[in-house]
Fold each of these.
Amino acid sequence: MPLVVLCGFPCSGKSRRAAELKRHFEQSSPRRVHVVGEGGPGLDRSSVYADSQSEKNLRGALRAEVERKVNKDDIVILDSLNYIKGYRYELFCLIKHTQTPHCLVYCLTSAALSSAWNSSRAASEQYTQETLDALVLRFEAPDSRNRWDSPLFAVQPDDALPFQEISDAIFKRKAPPPNQSTQSQPLSSTNFLYQLDKITQDVLLAVVSAQKTSVPGDQVTVPGTSEKVELTRSINMAELRKLRRQFISYSKMHPTENGGQISNMFVQYLNKSLN
């Protein structure tokens, strides 16, 4: 069913609010409630957020988990920083595609209070002060005037959650209508699927074969296109297959009558995803 996105500084009480929401929904609704969070055994959040690539991977994993769980029946609560407005927009596009409502709960704290709460945690769960300060500086506060940040519920540390208002926002509102970028369209022809499958598979095989004699920085020529795959790093087959599946899903929603463009589009997609 709906998605509830938590947002706030590190150590601002998001997990506590997520737990309160989970208890409330479980007591007041027959729907299942899933909390998707970044916590886990052995996860050093300070190290993750100190490295841009590790942070990007974490955001991607969280988004993928939300995408797997969100549907028209269950409630999903995303417990993470969610401090980048572009990432919140991606989540908004996701719920538009699923055609389910969402809302944002913003846990308001001062940087000083977040730092104090961070210091009170077990050493293994703390952010370094440098990482915490950097995240506070990078934080992009939600704005209810943005459709991806609305409805917005801002709560202070001592505030009680507005359970009724949040419930109304996700149960009594219509889902945002899908647009061209999120709504599935009919495939243009039966031959399109065959071309899509064969061409993307050929590109993958060309990349895998080229990697045997290439080094990072090389450009790989693939059949059927003047575009080249930029090998910025080593890419295993599992990752390539995942990207191929994502591209095929996207292409089914945006079919092209020009089969000759599929190779170009797939190579461009690979380059964008791998950089």
Note: The chain is about 50% helix and 10% strand.
Amino acid sequence: MASPGSSATTRTNPFAGPDPVLICDFNILGRVPAVLDHLTSTYYAWKTYFSLVFREYNLRDHVDGSVDSRFMDDDEEWMTIDATLIHWFYTTISKDLFRTVVSAEDDAHAVWTKLNGLFTDNALQRKVFLHDEFFGCQQHDSSVDDYCMHLKKLVDELRDLGEKVSDELLLITLIAGLNDDFGNAASNIPLIAEPTFSKVVAYLKLEERRMRISRTRATHTALTAGTHDGGPTTAPAPQPRPGPVPFQAPPHPGEGNMP
């Protein structure tokens, strides 16, 4: 490896390792825009983003176990990069996960293995929970985007556990969970040529937009009609009920003939 003070532009050897200066100055939050957390379905995205970074910058030997860091103590560059990767991991996980895995003795491979293990261990139990949530998923009042993305996250989590969900099963589950407003749209989905998850999501989002516009027009039409008719009829104000006629004594005989 080149010296720590070298720049990426001077590293002409294609077999050389990554430039420590480039790695240390790397904005990991810009390349891994996902925070790993037990409470959210971000594991698949988090792992995928990091896997791409490892491939792009030739860092896989730090996490795949092919190099034992105990024999790399004399390689300052390798150890610097390894420490940077640990910092990346700790920066992109929740505080609870940090407290779970943090250890001053771990190398990057150990931290990576711990974090992945938290989401892939107890695979059978996790599959049971995910299957139950997947097949019971309903749209209810959620938007099409939120509903479909939630289903996709469940599929990704099952895939991480070695459980592949076919596109056909994903579409069947998606259609079955749509709310009543999308009854007609659900009937039209089988008419889509070679339907895929992305095609169906795009179609449903357009249908959702169409229904929103229709509701807006209907509301506007009702308001306009009310204005042209002079507005809603106002009931006349209730008139006070007449009170009892006051009693008047009859005139005394002869009073009316008095001059």
Note: The CA atoms of residues 26 and 84 lie 9 Å apart.
Amino acid sequence: MEGISTKGVLSHLSLLEVQARSRKTRPEQPSRVKELKAKVEALRIQREQLKAEIETHKNLQKLRASMDKQSTHEEEEEEEEEEMDEDSENSELLRLMARHTQLEDLLHAHHIIGGYDVIKTSQGKGVCVSLATAYEGVYLETYNVEIDLKPRLRISRHNIPPFIPLDSLAEQSNLQAEVRTFLDALSKHLNGFAGRRQQLKLVKELHKPVEVMESNVLCSILVMLLTVPTVNTAVLCTLDYTDPTRCLPTRVHFECKANKALPESPEWKKNSSLLMETPVHKALMTMRKMGNIL
């Protein structure tokens, strides 16, 4: 009896479990169908959005092409724009989007080449990079280098002074792979030259008693005739700038025929160090205040 009752209880429990499962599955079926329908609708909406994005992208490409050719092919641009409704809000929006992507591309290029000013040339097949020079916070000359992008990077036009080794810098910096390295090296050479030339100009303006005897176009050498006030003795001062990227000399040489020992004196050795470490127009000002020169 005991075994039979136990078996009956187990069968009853099994039946209850089956019934409970059937109750749980029945209400879930409509919910599952509803969920699948919602997913299908979401996919349909996504498909329509993708179609619209593709169409927008095609129109943007067309507008970008016309904008890039604006300077040289204005008539072609007008014909392409006439294909779209001029009064359409969508058309105006597309133009704004195209202009936005164009500016983004220019900003990206500006960032890649290190912040130099750049504009597109040759219908987008090249760029013109502007390199500004400055000394002591004063902007001086601006130089331009036009670089063809296709089929390979090549300097096509420029107004860089002929004594700046442009081709050597392009080769040493590997222009094809490192445009920014090339531009940085070129900028250092240009700013070094501009700074030395500006110093020479300031020497002539601020130090009338100092006679400039010699200088070259690169301003890599400067020979000045200084006058010692106490004995009215002339001292020939030669500054060599062997590093073309710097505004300070790498060698200072004094020569005094009346007093050959003067350049080796402690006072004039200090003057030599001063000229090595300080821009020449400022160093001469200090030497004059100390009474070493007129």
Note: Strands lie at 117-121, 126-135, 138-148, 154-158, 211-215, 221-228, 233-240, 251-255.
